Amino acid sequence: MTLTDALIDEIRAEFPEFRVVPKKNDRLSWLIDRLLKVATLGHQDQYLTHYYTVIFHTLYTPEGWETTGDIERVITLRHERVHLRQLRRYTAPGMVFLYLLPFAPLGLAYGRARLEWEAYTETVRATAELRGLAAARSEHLRRHILKQFTSGAYGWMWPFEGQLNRWYDEALGQIEREIAGTSPRAARMEQKG
Ligand SMILES: [Zn+2]
Fold first, then answer.
1. How confident is the model over 101-122, as pLDDT tens digits?
2. Does 93 sit behind a cis peptide bond, omega within 30 degrees of 0 on the bond before it?
3. pLDDT tens column, 35-58
4. Distance 79 CA to ligand 1 centre (A)
5. Quick check: helix, strand or coil at residue 163?
6. What's the gap in Å between 180 CA and the centre of ligand 1?
7. How far, in Å, from the CA of 99 to the mean position of ligand 1?
8. Is the pLDDT assigned to residue 100 strictly greater than 80?
9. Which residues contact 49 (CB under 8 A, 6 or more apart)?
10. H-helix or E-strand containing 49?
11. How many domains does the chain have?
């Protein structure tokens, strides 16, 4: 059994309705793709080919999901699991509200940026745990994640690089403490294990 299959089982135990659907032959995904291209003036044209999307309890996957490496898929699933937990925490109308308000759907979308920030913190954490701290600290990962906030990929949701870098440093510091075993989260995990 791959790490991916094991994690999907774990997510299903927490969210029985969870399922994985390829975007390629999915009508809803094609419709969203068209709308995003219009709304972002063509800046988000990789929705079907490069982006993972959770809508309610379904994870829609881009091309190549089946052939993506095991660890990369696990890192992706851990990010998306954060969105499933947000959905439970904030409820469906709450998620819509946070995603679209209080600012405009495009640009300065603070609610959406905070939701994505929580999920990307998990991306960094999963990278640190599965690929090592050096990978989590890499400039490559930082640039990749910051770009999701500052570019048209998510509608320019939070273009303040200085603040994003401070969030990133804080998240990295927290994760480093967890791994060193000195943070409350790590202590909780030890108690459980
Ligand atoms: Zn996300």
1. 544 555 567 788 888 999 999 9
2. no
3. 888 877 887 788 898 888 888 899
4. 6
5. helix
6. 27
7. 11
8. no
9. 62, 63
10. helix 47-50
11. 1
